[in-house]
Amino acid sequence: MSSDQQTPLSQQTTYIALGIDAGGTQTRWALATKDEQILASGTAAGLTALQTDNAEGVQAVHQVFAGLAAATRSHGQVSSIRAGITGFGGDAHTLPDMLADCFDLEKQHILVSNDIEIAYLDIFKPGTGYLIYAGTGSIAAYIDANGEFHRAGGRGYLLDDAGGGFWIAREAMRKLWRAEDEHPDHWKNSEMAKRLFKLIGGNDWNISRDFIYHRSRGDIGKLAMAVAAAADSDPVAMVILQSAGKELARLGMAMCTRFGNKPIALSGRVQELHPAIVESLRLHLPPEISLRQSTCEAHFSAARLAARQLKKQS
Length: 314
Description:
Layout: E1 15-22, E2 26-32, E3 38-45, H1 55-72, E4 77-85, H2 94-103, E5 110-113, H3 115-123, E6 130-134, E7 138-143, E8 149-153, H4 165-182, H5 191-200, H6 205-214, H7 217-221, H8 224-230, H9 235-259, E9 264-267, H10 275-283, E10 291-293, H11 298-313
Parallel strand pairs: 1-4, 4-5, 6-9, 9-10
Antiparallel strand pairs: 1-2, 2-3, 6-7, 7-8
């Protein structure tokens, strides 16, 4: 690290804080000043902590971080980073190491957590409610009054993540191809199937296979948009979206069972797909539990949290 980063913060250099909200579909970032004013924001390719399990994934994540470093450099010197990254379990050192390398920053000024923790703090004060977050995946979160993080779901797309974008897409493709097994060319009478095939590039099984097994989790999750677009005219698509809402309600009820009834907030892009998802979620919650929708801007929250740490360095 350069010598000026080792000295107390001065008036000569603009020291800034970086907040990162990384998910499978997209990475959002924001810069804040020491007084928590947002300077700039942007987006980059999606990433997850699970990518650090192999060399190719590590290279892809490093490339995203290097791009962030280049994008933020013109605004000042990043001296504090708070990052929320999907799939991060607290046991991986690779991500903080890569951030330290890309930003030429000591690790003591970098805090990485699961993205849902930052999203929760963007919406609730600890102990006051439950967050259901549904993007590419799904999870419910609760940070209690002592600051301890609790979760329901969020087990990853291979095991669960029910109600998230990937799950919706997988359910749609599964139903599509089961229908084809029983009635070849059934897709010609299915609005959902026609929209899905248009997105993936054709109706041949080989095309579907290559898309599902070779594309990223985020790319597959985007197929949920085709399901939502077909829902008003295709009953199969509508049932999938209603099932997604029911699955998200299950996450919220798991928290209520463990910690008592509290207000619930729904955040994440799945809620924007179609009103049927939120309607189904409300339907499957007891009437005494309040539900509100929230547009979470966790990258802004992360930047402000990083700014508070930056202030301590002064």
